[in-house]
Amino acid sequence: MLRRALGDAVRWGYLARNVAEDAQPPSVGRRPALVWTPEQWRTFVGHIRGDRLYALYLLAVTTGMRRGELVGLRRQDVDLTAGTVVPSVPRIVVDGKTATSDTKTETGLRPRALDPMTLKALRHHVDRWEKNRADVGHANELLFCHPDGCDIHPDSITDWFQGHARAAGLPVIRLHDVRHSYATAALKSGAHPKVVSERLGHADVAFTSRIYSHVIPGMDEAAAGLVAGVILGPQDKGQESDVHESVHEMKTSPLEGGDDED
Length: 262
What we know:
The protein is mainly alpha-helical and about 260 residues long. About 50% of the residues lie in helices and about 5% in strands.
């Protein structure tokens, strides 16, 4: 961040050079993410059903939204007719206090489609939110706030989430690990990495593939079978043996077309 700030100062003519370019920051090891299984997710969702923030937790589970995006979600960011959500003004913690921020990437501003269950929960939450605003008289545009209209601190969301996990008898994970769990489940389900990358708000699909490279090998094997099934049709064990024998013959016999054949 300092390097980028000083780079701006150089471009604006305030500094002759960016001294931060010479710095060699230490490498920081990435903490391995802990993810829940689909069965554990279903247990969690069943446990929080009826909670006042049920829609918030469900959004985290089914969209992989960041904590700041969840607590910064406004009524105007949700299109209940189209069934989409655009978290455009995330809220982050700076020196213990909450502040608004910009989205981390341009893809973060793209509408994210909601599944029927999440959309239903969000509709119910909006109805209750609008009634509460009328009863109490507060003017907070944040969808997830206290009943009196006061903002919810992002750290409180984390504490409440982990409290629910303990009460449900589940391994306690970080709220950010919910995002990792979503990405892992999405990729394993066969969702295209480009689509998963956009729903997570990553800068590009290469970043997504690098972070979740541990999921790719299984996807590659599954894709090999699916593509072969489309091209070659259903295969029984006899056909598989014929294919293996043909491959063996190709490897041990010279190609008739010479070296130019690919």
